Each structure stands twice: as C-alpha cells, then as structure tokens.
C-alpha cells in the first residue's frame, strides 16, 4: 500500500523553497503501482550565534520580604501583623505577600485587626522609605522614621524622589506631625503653579521650608489687614522660611512695608471685584471643605436661573447635601473665600470666556468658564461691581442672552436689578507642564 500526497499526479512543491532531495514515503511496496515522488523541503536549523548562551538556569525573582520572614508560613505572617512584631516597614511587606496568596484587605483586617486604610498607609509608606534608601538619603534621616514614621512618609508619597529626600530631612529637622507633613507636601506640589503671584520669585523652590513659607504667606494675604489670622499666618511663614530672600519678603509683609502696594491692589480690586481662578486637577478631592452649587446653562437664558434651587445645605454627621427641590446639574467647588456663606448662590456655565467685560478676557480665547453669582444681592449699586443680567438687542436687561456686565454700564442704561452679583469666575483645570516629574523620579 502506498500513501501519496500528490495532487493530480503532480508532486507537492513550493516555489519559494530551496531545492533539496525529494522524499518518498512507502509503507508497503506494490509492484503494480508506480511510486510517485512527494516533494518536501528540509529547512536546516540556523546555527546559533557564537556569543549567544544556549542554556540559562532559572533564577527566581528576588523576594520582597525581609530574610527573617521568607521561611514563615501564612499563619505565622498573620501573627506577626496581628501583634505588630518588628519594625513597621518590615512587616508592612507581609501585606502584599498575603494578597498574592488570595487574601483581601477585609480578610486581612479580620485576621490582624489592621484596617484597610492602615494597610494601604503601611504599604505605601514602606515604598516611600525604600525610595529614600535607593536615592542615598542619609541613613540617620531614614532611620528616624523607623518608629511611627509610616504616617509621615505616607504624606510625601506624591513627591518625586528628589523632593521626598528633601522633605524627609525637613520633617525630621522641624519635628513635623502628620498634618505638618501633609501641608509640606502640598506646598511643594503647589508652588510651581503659583508662578506670577506676589513675591513668588522670593522663595526658593528647591527648599521645602520656602515652599511651606510661601503657602502660609499666601494664606496670610487672604485675611484682612490688620487681623489676628493674617499676623499668625505671617509668623508661621517667617518661622519656616529658609532663604534670606524669603525671610525678607515675609518680614516686609509682617512689618507693613507692603501696605502701599496693598492699597494699590485694593484700588484695582475696586475696579474688578471678581476673583478669576483656575481649578486645579485634584483640587476638589484634596479640599478639606467644599460647596455644592446648582448649575445653569447660559443658552437657557434666565429660565433656569429662576427655576434653580435657592437653598442648598448639609445635614447630619456625614454632611449630606439637601436641596429644596430636585435639580439635574450641580458643581462641587473648594470652599474658597468668595463662596463662604453663599446661601443663595447659582453657577452659570458659559462656553466662551469672552463674555466677561474686561480686557484680560482676550487671553482666555474660547475657554469655557463658570460664573458664580449671589442671587441674594440683585440690586445694581456698585459702579465697579459685576452683575449677571440678560440683555437683548435693545439693552433693556430683561430678556435674551445672559451676560456679565459692569455696574456703571447697567446704570447708564437704567438697569437697577440683576439676577445676582458675580462673586467668582472659575476656569477649567488645565494640565500643568512646569512641575511634571521626570522619568527617573518615578518609582
């Protein structure tokens, strides 16, 4: 019997294959049936390069566990966590190993009493500590966090490796608590975004103390002059300032040498009484206090403003937001000073910032904005103030498109009442590029 892989008495072949000897497959020869060749190609194996290693023994990845924990079984690891045996950054490495074995944060909490929040804090803080070791931070600084340092290191997790080392030194030198470490980290992340603000160039970005000092300096200028809050903030800024230039700027403000400039700025604010701020990415999430306001669309004209809820408050221990009636569109904003105590506030969303009636709006181009207005202050009584009105082609201030108008212009047209006094203009978040981390700064 003969098995032939030919088609129509034509040997199987391929045009792109090299020519080699044909192979004949015969299971039982038959004198009556002529043998037909089956063409195939032998593809010789390519000889390996002379510099290539043919055999590489298996090497398991290094264990993240300290050597004293590697031979322990699951029950022993749980016991170490439950009794906090050893240093926190050592037993913190047991948590990821248990999760790899199938445990979940709730099950680990049930077995050890360590909450999911604390588990996350321990793991992240251990990673931050390891980054300090890898960046050759002084051993005495690293060892200072060996006892109760997880909460402190956790707060500087968002900083780059270089910033972490500098922040860690400052935390130890100033003996900061968790809240102080959190303020320090935020000030270091926020400083580059404040370019252009008063005295910004007087503080050194590479010095954590100067970054924290600038944050207190900014907070001081948000309070009235004179006031106890302003003085306390400036004293805190002076206490943590490191560079002589920063100390001089804070001291000048504390001694009142900048009062003339403040009066000049106050005159400017008399002409433009509306702060224009750009919301930063993640700023709402990091805010310790927020406000929730109803949002109306400018294209809906005055209809939505009249229908929007007038009262919105928080109730209970969880701060549940309660409105007098249902509404579809809401916005959450940090509790900035202009919106503190705003009981009858409303937000109007404009698709084009050029509706604002001052010259600087040309820089906004076609950027969308939110205009926050106080409906409790409808009367047009300040020439330099700004008001939310609806203006038609005749300029009677009663219908058609919503706009922001200056008080003096409204008075000239005989408009004495608006939908509300504008207290704040919010610009959308924008990706910052001046303080992005370099590739080598990431873990």
Automatic annotation (TrEMBL):
Keywords: Chaperone. InterPro entries: RAF1, Raf1_C, Raf1_HTH, Raf1_N. Residues 274-430 form the Rubisco accumulation factor 1 C-terminal domain. It comes from the Eukaryota. One of its GO terms (cellular component) is chloroplast. The keyword Chaperone applies. Residues 73-133 form the Rubisco accumulation factor 1 helix turn helix domain. One of its GO terms (biological process) is ribulose bisphosphate carboxylase complex assembly. PANTHER family: RUBISCO ACCUMULATION FACTOR 1 (PTHR35299), RUBISCO ACCUMULATION FACTOR 1.2, CHLOROPLASTIC (PTHR35299:SF3). This is Rubisco accumulation factor 1 C-terminal domain-containing protein. It comes from Hevea brasiliensis.
């Amino acid at each position: 019997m003969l098995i032939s892989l030919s088609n129509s008495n034509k040997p199987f072949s391929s045009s792109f294959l090299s020519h080699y000897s044909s192979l004949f497959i015969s299971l039982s020869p038959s004198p009556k049936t002529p043998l037909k060749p089956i063409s195939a190609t032998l593809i010789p194996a390519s000889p390996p390069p002379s510099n290539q290693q043919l055999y590489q023994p298996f090497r398991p990845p290094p264990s993240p566990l300290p050597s004293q924990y590697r031979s322990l079984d699951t029950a022993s690891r749980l016991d170490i966590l439950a009794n906090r045996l050893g240093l926190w950054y050592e037993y913190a490495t047991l948590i990821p190993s248990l999760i790899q074995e199938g445990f979940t944060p709730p099950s680990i909490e049930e077995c050890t009493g360590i909450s999911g929040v604390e588990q996350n804090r321990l793991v992240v803080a251990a990673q931050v500590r390891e980054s300090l070791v890898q960046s050759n931070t002084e051993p005495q600084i690293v060892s200072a966090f060996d006892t109760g340092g997880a909460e402190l290191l956790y707060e500087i997790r968002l900083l780059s490796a270089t910033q972490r080392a500098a922040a860690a030194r400052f935390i130890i030198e100033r003996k900061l608590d968790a809240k102080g470490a959190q303020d320090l980290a935020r000030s270091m992340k926020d400083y580059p975004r404040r370019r252009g603000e008063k005295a910004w160039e007087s503080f050194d970005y590479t010095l954590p103390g100067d970054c924290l000092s600038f944050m207190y300096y900014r907070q001081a200028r948000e309070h009235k002059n004179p006031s106890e809050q302003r003085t306390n903030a400036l004293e805190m800024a002076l206490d943590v300032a490191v560079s002589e230039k920063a100390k001089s700027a804070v001291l000048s403000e504390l001694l009142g040498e900048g009062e003339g400039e403040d009066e000049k700025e106050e005159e400017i604010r008399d002409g433009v009484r509306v702060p224009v701020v750009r919301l930063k990415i993640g700023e709402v999430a990091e805010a310790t206090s927020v406000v929730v306001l109803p949002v109306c669309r400018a294209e809906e004209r005055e209809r939505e403003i009249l229908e929007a809820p007038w009262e919105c408050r928080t109730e209970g221990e969880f701060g549940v937001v309660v409105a007098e009636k249902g509404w579809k569109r809401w916005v959450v904003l940090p509790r900035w000073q202009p919106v503190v105590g705003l009981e009858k506030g409303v937000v109007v969303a404009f698709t084009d910032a050029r509706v604002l009636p001052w010259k600087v709006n040309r820089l906004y181009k076609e950027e969308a904005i939110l205009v926050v207005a106080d409906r409790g202050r409808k009367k047009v009584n300040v020439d330099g103030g700004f008001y939310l009105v609806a203006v038609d082609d005749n300029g009677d201030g009663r219908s058609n498109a919503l706009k922001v108008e200056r008080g003096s212009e409204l008075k000239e047209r005989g408009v004495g009442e608006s939908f509300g006094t504008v207290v704040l203009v919010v610009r959308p978040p924008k990706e910052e590029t001046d303080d992005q981390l370099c590739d080598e700064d990431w873990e």
